[in-house]
Amino acid sequence: MLFSPMDSERFSLRIGKTAISGLEAARGLMHAAKEEQIELMIARCPVDEVAAIHQLETNGFELMDTLIYLARSVSAVEIQTHGEKVRQAVAADADAVEGVARSSFANYVGHYHADSRLPRDAADRIYPDWARRCVLVPSVADCVLVYEHHSVVAGFAALKLLSADCCDGMLFSVAPDYQKKGIFRALLQASCSWAAKQGVKEMEYSTQLRNIPALRGVMESGFLIKKAAHTFHCWTGNKQ
Question: I want to staple 173 with a disulfide (CB 3.0 to 4.6 A). Which of 11, 81, 104, 185 is the partner?
Fold first, then answer.
């Protein structure tokens, strides 16, 4: 099933999403999209699957962004934390967390923003909505940590356990007024500490290739590049 209900509702289009594992998957994607009447197909493909990438481009897919995945081992003994300022979010923090995401991602260019055929206002709502759901919907995130500065939520980290061995730092955000104050690093350290307490061995973080400040920050915190993937969009011409 390619159909993405949330994306389709957000943009009022029939949108499909998939992860491409190799050439055969890329070859069969357009046929599958046609069967499901997908209007916009979004595909993520590892950067080393060159033949699959070329097949996607031949089929009309266009590059929208490149994600860099980084990881580090975690140990409760070696991670420094800022326990007095970082705590686990509660439902009452949802508005504040959403507000932090709205302000910090205001000029962010993800793969939705990179597609000029998608409305900018709808793309702008993606990260604030995701942040809010991380706090309120248990299935979205396993833990949301918030950093407080004088009782104000200045930043947050949403974490998801991918397996018994790996935790994903899937969404981090620091409000513009509080950036460059060490809050991002403090949230990274607290996230690694939380992950270690859950018994996992590895913490993973991903961001766009163009997001140099975040890449620099996580690498300074001991993360190393693990893999990378391209995100492609294709407007299929299919109609519902």
Answer: 104
- pTM of the full structure: 0.91
Measuring CA to CA, how many Å separate 209 from each of 38, 57, 170?
28, 20, 15
What are the extents of the domains in the chain? 5-66+230-235, 71-227
> 3-class DSSP state for residue 46?
strand
* pLDDT band, residue 145 (cuts 50/70/90): very high
Judged on CB neighbours under 10 Å (0-12, 13-18, 19+), 44 is: middle
- Angle, helix 94-104 to helix 126-136, in steps of 10 degrees: 160
The CATH class given to the 71-227 domain equals alpha beta
Q: How many C-beta atoms lie closer than 10 Å to residue 160's C-beta?
A: 17
Q: For 188, how many CA atoms within 13 A lie in the half-sphere containing its CB?
A: 21
pLDDT the model gives residue 71: 97
What digits encode the pLDDT tens for the residues 120-144?
A: 999 999 999 999 999 999 999 999 9
Distances (CA, A) of 80 to 9, 72, 105, 126, 187: 42, 14, 27, 32, 11
Which residue's entry shows tokens 């504040």? Answer: 96
